[in-house]
Write a structure and sequence with these properties.
alpha/beta; Rossmann fold; seven-stranded mixed beta sheet; 12 helices; 7 strands
Length: about 270
């Protein structure tokens, strides 16, 4: 496996360090609203995952494991030079969780906004939701292969609501179109990443799994199952929010994050 030697790293402020990991179709800017809404008592650090922003793409169609992105998170945490509160959204939430489980850096807490591993659906016996997610991902990859310009709408509307892609600004739409091929590799890594309930029992830090109150049915099951499987975890919902809550409800998400960090006494 090649490890990215070039990766996004942005830092501001002073205080306890929070490392923010965005998901697919996103870069460090995804966290700007939350970082602005947080008290000025944190050192905010942001990175981007493989193939997004200025982070090098080290994966390929044949080598797409989540360990590529775990290496990016580990490198960013080590560059931070001390313990971090780890925060991720969507695919970035799954990567953050995987990085924490693998170790190699010191984490003080974990907060995941709509982390989306498929394994918790299996824990809950929801084969119907697994089939639906896999069918959507297969349709998306086929649409990318056919060169459909708006193939990414299949993914964005699945996690959000119908019309999520159409509601984006033209600039945001163009960016999503430009990285649709990167998201194909994300999905391959997603399908290959199998979590077990035993993994959740060894988290070792206080964890908060957050979803929007308007999350799709798969996300509701995933979030509840993740929080229920870890003795150090809990779940919280952000009222009126969908999958894209970190952008649409930054103040509420910042309050949730700040409250979690304060609850473990490290702020």
């Amino acid at each position: 496996m090649r490890v990215a030697t070039s990766f996004d790293y942005q830092e501001s402020g002073e205080g306890p360090a929070i490392l923010f990991v965005p998901g697919s179709y996103a870069t460090t800017s995804a966290w700007r609203g939350i970082q602005t809404a947080l008290p000025r008592t944190y050192r905010c650090i942001s990175t981007s995952l493989c193939g997004y922003g200025r982070t090098a793409e080290t994966r390929s169609a044949a080598d797409f494991g989540i360990e590529h992105n775990v290496a990016v998170v580990r490198a960013a945490a080590r560059r931070a030079g001390g313990p971090v509160h780890l925060v991720g959204h969507s695919w970035g939430g799954l990567v953050a969780l995987a990085a924490l489980l693998e170790g190699g850096f010191e984490a003080l807490s974990l907060t995941c906004f709509e982390a989306n591993p498929w394994s918790p659906l299996a824990w809950a016996g929801r084969q119907d939701l697994i089939d639906g997610m896999r069918r959507m991902a297969a349709d998306f990859e086929a649409a990318v292969d056919r060169g459909e310009a708006d193939a990414c709408a299949l993914v964005l509307d699945y996690w959000g609501q119908k019309g999520s892609f159409a509601s984006m600004s033209p600039k945001a739409q163009d960016y999503c179109r430009s990285v649709a091929g990167v998201n194909v590799i994300d999905w391959r890594g997603h399908r290959a990443c199998a979590l077990e309930t035993a993994d959740m029992r060894r988290l070792g830090v206080s964890a908060l799994f957050v979803r929007g109150s308007l999350a799709n049915p798969a996300m509701v099951v995933i979030t509840d199952a993740l929080a229920g499987a870890a003795p150090t975890a809990r779940m919280q919902a952000v009222e009126g929010a969908t999958h894209f809550l970190i952008g649409t409800h930054p103040a509420e998400c910042a309050a949730v994050l700040h409250g979690h960090i304060r609850s473990i006494g490290t702020s």
